[in-house]
Amino acid sequence: MADDQALVWAALCGIVGTAQDLAVVAAVDTGTTAVEAARAQHADVVLMDVRMPDMDGIEATRLICAPASGPVPRVLILTTFDLDEYVYGALRAGASGFLLKDTPPTDLIAAVRVIAAGDALLAPGITRRLITEFTARQAPLPTPALRDLAGVTTRERQVLILVAEGLSNAEIAHRLHITTGTAKTHVGHLLTKFQVRDRIQLVILAHRTGLVPGQPSLSGDAPESR
């Protein structure tokens, strides 16, 4: 974890330490040391502050999430600020999650597990308006994502739409009357089919391809009936 305030990262270490399945492998106070520690310790998840000396958390996230020959750590941004630009910057840099520091400890631990499992999340205060604005600012989607949209099944489209609405796998399962495992499998198939990293990019894809109401289809064709 990386935070320039010793009291904060000490508290975070204490919170994470209460979970038997989690362990803190390094605690640092600058962006540069965060990048070095993430690589040296082969961290699964990095808790990253935004405002730090030497290198901010957004740039550190970009470097940590850059393509590499081995596994790439996932980054969960933790900050006291919920400014839109921080979220935009974190998502562009490759972060898999964004939480405010007033998040309850149990929710923080749950978030680390979600990120470690390969999912992604945004704090409840990050609204659909923000996601919509972010998608409008993004560069064009990869060609495979647009090309393969027509090939998704009806069930996969249903799952993709619910992912875009911010539902968890359990909530998707309840909504569609399927098991949580089946919902997770559908999400995994979508990640593979569209060649995207995580759920956040699925949200972006769903908005930008017109599957979510109010968003124009980038392909030029109206989305198929749901």
TrEMBL record:
The HTH luxR-type domain, residue ranges: 145-210
Keyword annotations from UniProtKB, A to Z: DNA-binding, Phosphoprotein, Transcription, Transcription regulation
Transcription regulation in keyword set: yes
Coiled coil: none
InterPro entries (UniProt xref): CheY-like_superfamily (IPR011006), NreC/VraR/RcsB-like_REC (IPR058245), Sig_transdc_resp-reg_C-effctor (IPR016032), Sig_transdc_resp-reg_receiver (IPR001789), Tscrpt_reg_LuxR_C (IPR000792), WalR-like (IPR039420)
Domain of life: Bacteria
GO molecular function: DNA binding
Entry keyword Transcription: yes
PANTHER family in UniProt: TRANSCRIPTIONAL REGULATORY PROTEIN NARL-RELATED, TWO-COMPONENT RESPONSE REGULATOR
Name of this chain's protein: DNA-binding response regulator, NarL/FixJ family, contains REC and HTH domains
Species this protein is from: Actinacidiphila paucisporea
